[in-house]
Amino acid sequence: MRCPYCGRVEDRVVDSRTADDGHVIRRRRECRSCGRRFTTYERREEVPMLVVKKDGTREPFSREKIIKGIMTACEKRPVSHGDIVGLVTKIERDLGATYEGEIPSRAIGERVMAALKELDEVAYIRFASVYRSFRDVGEFMDELHKLMGAEEEAGDAASPASPKAGKSKDA
Ligand SMILES: [Zn+2]
Fold first, then answer.
1. How far apart are CA 54 and CA 2, in angstroms?
2. What separation in Å is there between the alpha carbon of 49 and the centre of ligand 1?
3. Using CA atoms, how far apart are residues 74 and 6, in angstroms rounded to an integer?
4. Is 86 helix (H, G, I), strand (E, B) or coil?
């Protein structure tokens, strides 16, 4: 790192600590040439990605949206919150490594399907059956929520233990 005082590039790190709840590494450096100290900050590169939809329009990549969609597909399945978050983190990392700046919405849907297939067959079928007719994640997520809502209502009679129904177990 070039010294701000003398312009030389040799320095040594005299102190290194995290800041901003682990999002930043702050390094105190000492110039080997003039001996003066300065500070550098290291942050993860934050480049927002865009999702390219089937019709060519773009929208910001939303991790929350994917998590919500998967949670909906996994409703009443033996899939933990940690499973879902871990799955999305893996997908996000993979997308980040494969695409730069823009991600086709299709690539997201396909990765979600592949991951769900390994995680939970029922969640996979729910997700895939709706997704295949849309090929667009945003539109699809909306539809999935509607569908799952309808399924839950229809399923109440058959599943008396439904926690969301607000009915007595023995009714
Ligand atoms: Zn210097």
1. 47
2. 38
3. 59
4. helix
- pLDDT tens, 3-16? 999 999 999 999 99
How do residues 27-77 score in pLDDT, each as one tens digit? 999 999 999 999 999 987 667 789 998 889 999 998 888 898 899 889 899
Q: How far is the CA of 33 from the centre of ligand 1 (A)?
A: 5
Distance from Cα 38 to the centre of ligand 1, integer Å: 9
Domain ranges of the chain: 11-43, 50-155
How far is 134 from 150, CA to CA, in rounded Å? Answer: 18
Residue 95: name the closest of 83, 106, 84 by CA.
106
Distance from residue 23's CA to the centre of ligand 1 (Å): 28
Helices (H) and strands (E) in the chain, counts: 5, 6
